[in-house]
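Pipeline run #58 for the internal structure catalog. This entry was flagged by the ingest filter as a single-chain record with no existing model, so it goes straight to prediction. Upstream metadata was stripped on purpose; only the residue string is passed forward. Reviewer on rotation: M.T. Logging verbosity set to normal.
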Amino acid sequence: MRQTITIGSARARRINVNGDIAAVWQITPKITATEGYDFWYFRGPGTNLLSETDYTGASMLVPPGNPTTTTTADSRFLNQETHSNTASLAWDVTSRARISAGYRYRSRTIAHNGDLTPIHENWGLFGTSLRPNPQLRINFNVDLMYADNTFTRISPRQLQHYVARAIYQPRTWLVFSGAANIYEARNNVQNVNHLEHNRYFSFGTSVTPGEKWSADLNYSYNSTFSSTLLCYASTPPPPNAGAAPPICTQAGTPLSSTGYYNAPTQFGSFGLTFSPINRLHGKAGYRISAVNGSTDTMNIRQVNGSLQSYYQTPYAQLVFDLEQKWKWKADYNFYGYGEGLPVGPTLPRNFHANVVTLSVNYAF
């Protein structure tokens, strides 16, 4: 028979110091140089003291013997010191076009329980802003980075980030907009093999011909992907398990996986507002988000779950002005969620709800 009582105390702090300085030099009326330096240093020390008292006895029928008390002290800390320097040059080619280029150097030193990880990054920066005519605006930026080290397996050694945005307004009541945001990163050193991307594309339009009605339409596509060498142990092993490299086998994790994760997601929405008479206002619309993804299976009972699912929310609202400060209001909202195949130990989750709200509002 054994009884244990554990008591203790812990203390953790976060100490943060940061600062920055920048300068701008107007070389010519069309050429501008900037220089910026950023410093960030934080420390997260923590200590704890645990006291464990053990009471032992031969059985529940006799009193326990003399207690034994053990006291254990421990400490942990995480420090990071960052120096970042960014220099850039911008040129106004014309009144409707600007281009810029820059270079950034960032040095980080991460200390974790006595282990130091120095990381040095080199960045290339490029940007352009175009105004071909008063109705069209286009912005485009590129960031490129290379690092000589990483702190975690999923931290990138190389990355490319591309961002483009455009707005086109052919009429005062009609606006089109679009954006692309592409992020590519990798840490493809031995026994890591990490790849990832996040590619986002969106389009939207707004129509506002007058006070009687307006409409907006939006669509976006987002592809999120990652792959990393994972080592694990499983009994029994899943059918698609691979053989782990020797460094993992020696650590007792003889199986390997690519850590594959892919979640392409589409989102669409449509909204309409209307006011046929001065005292009646309404809106209605439909929103849906659907994903058709998959991931590497490391458990024979694992199913795709929300990686293959949809979520839709149509809605409607009517507001009638009864008097100057009184309004009658009716709202309808539908919430629907569903998952696809394959079926695992439980059936795919599906639910829906209809919510109707009637109210009278008084504003004062």
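catalog note: The chain has a mean pLDDT of 91.
catalog note: The chain is about 0% helix and 70% strand.
status: ready for reviewer M.T.
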